[in-house]
Hints:
Radius of gyration: 15 Å
Distance between the termini: 41 Å
Low-confidence stretches: 104-111
Strand content: under 5%
Order of helices and strands: HHHHH
Number of helices: 5
Largest sheet: none
Structural class: mainly alpha
Amino acid sequence: MAIIGITIVCLGTSFYQRANLWMYPTDSLTTLLTSRFFNNHFAWAQLVAFVPPVILIAATTVHLHMVVGVRTGTLFSLVCNGPLIAFFNKRVFPFLRLNSPLQAGLSRFLY
């Protein structure tokens, strides 16, 4: 069920990243990283966006001497979010364009 849910969330993320709507900050970060640093490669951008949670998981594991709260859904999300979003961008309504914060004129707030 978690894998199906994560796949549906990636489909929804693909839609609203390409619509001209306000985005959730982590999705906006992925879009910004994709357009600015990773030449439209969502998989790399998503991996970089997931660095803080991975650091927290590692710190918790070191502190407790056991892995807590990491299951199949977490691992699937870490590995597959970026590729799934990229897949949906290309295959589902490909005529929609990416709503990049840089294209929207918001880059002045980033510097």
